[in-house]
Amino acid sequence: MTTSSDEKLPFLMDLQTNSKADEIQALRAEFEKQSAPGNRVIPQTKFDLAYTLIKSSFKKDQEEGLKLLHELYKEHPARRRECLYYLSIGNYKLAQYVEARKFNEILLQMEPRNAQSLRLRDLIDSKVRSDGMIGIAIVGGLVASVVAVGFAMLGGKRK
Fold first, then answer.
1. What tens digit of pLDDT does each residue of 123-136 get?
2. I need a labelling partner for 157 at 20 to 30 A (CA). Which of 112, 115, 140, 149 fits?
3. DSSP state of 25
4. DSSP states of 100-155 as a string?
5. Residues with Cβ < 8 Å from 28, sequence gap 6 or more?
C-alpha cells in the first residue's frame, strides 16, 4: 500500500482517530481540579481537554471542545493559531463547513503556505461539493416522488 504525503499530515489523524473515554475522563478531572475555587486553569490543560473532546466520537463532546477552544482563542492571543486550526477541525467533524472554512481562512491569512490548512481547505471544499450533490439528489428525488404521486392522484380522478 502506498501512502501519499497528505496521509502523513497530522491533521488527518485528528480527523480519523477518536479519543478514548479514559483520556477524556483524566483530562476532565485535571481541568475540574484546576477550575476549583482558589486555583487557576493552566491554558495547556484547557487546550488538551478541548483537543481531546473534538476528537471524541460524540457530538456533545465535540461541541464542548469547540466551546473551550473559543474561550482559549479569546483569552490567550498567543494560542490563536492553534485554536483556529482546531476550531476548523472540530467544525469539520460536526459538518459545520461554513464555520470550518471561516476559521481555516483566518489561519491561512496568517500563514498562507500552511500545508495542513491548505489540505483542510481542499477537504472542506470537497465535502461541501459532495454534500451539495447529495442534497441536490435528495431534493430531486423528493420532487420526482411528489410529481409521481400527483400524476397518480390526477390519473385516478380522471376515471
1. 999 888 887 655 45
2. 140
3. H
4. HHHHHHHHHHH-TT-HHHHHHHHHHHHHHHHHHHHHHHHHHHHHHHHHHHHHHHHH
5. 49
